[in-house]
Amino acid sequence: MKNLIAILFVGMISLGSFAQEKVAKIEFKTDVIDYGTIEKGADGVRTFEFTNTGNAPLIISSVKSTCGCTVPKKPKGPIMPGEKGEIEVKYDTNRVNPIRKTITVISNAETPTIALKIKGLVVDPNKTSVLEQRSKSVIEQ
């Protein structure tokens, strides 16, 4: 009886190891892109790079931004295990303001929803701040 139980136990363990489910895994090089301080009208395109570290094809079904000033572009086809992919993000740099936006990626990966972030500051080189104007007028006097 003990031998039968031992054989069944070993059989269950080996069966479990063969029945592992294939799953896609998405691993980003970074989940935050810092634009730094850029000028109004500068190139607003940046790229999030990732790798499918799983053992099944990765399919990105949706990539959405928190506002219309940020336009993300998802890969068209599946990313096979071990392959790299990119999500391109274009920020409208004609808006002079701090940049704090979130891009939501939805896929068939083990972690199906991932939040990516962009940050930075867009400045207009033709305009000076109130403090700069004031210090110039003090110096000129």
Question: Would you mind describing this structure in some detail?
Answer:
The chain is an alpha+beta fold. 20% of the residues lie in helices and 41% in strands. The protein is built from two helices and eight strands. The protein has helices spanning 2-18, 130-140, and strands at residues 26-28, 32-39, 45-52, 60-65, 70-73, 84-91, 98-107, 113-123. The strands form two sheets. It has a four-stranded antiparallel β-sheet with strand order 1-3-6-5, with no helix packed on it. A four-stranded mixed β-sheet has the order 2-8-7-4, with no helix packed on it. The model is unreliable at 14-19 and 133-140 (pLDDT under 50).
Features:
141 residues, alpha+beta, 20% helix, four-stranded mixed beta sheet, four-stranded antiparallel beta sheet
- Per DSSP, the total helix count is 2
Q: What is the 3D form?
A: elongated
Give unreliable regions as ranges: 14-19, 133-140
Order of helices and strands: HEEEEEEEEH
Estimated helix fraction: 10-25%
Strand order of the largest sheet: 1-3-6-5
Distance between the termini: 103 Å
- Percentage of residues in strands: 35-45%
Mean pLDDT: 84
Radius of gyration: 25 Å
Number of strands: 8
Q: Classify the secondary structure makeup into a structural class.
A: alpha+beta
Main beta-sheet strand count, sense and barrel state: 4 strands, antiparallel
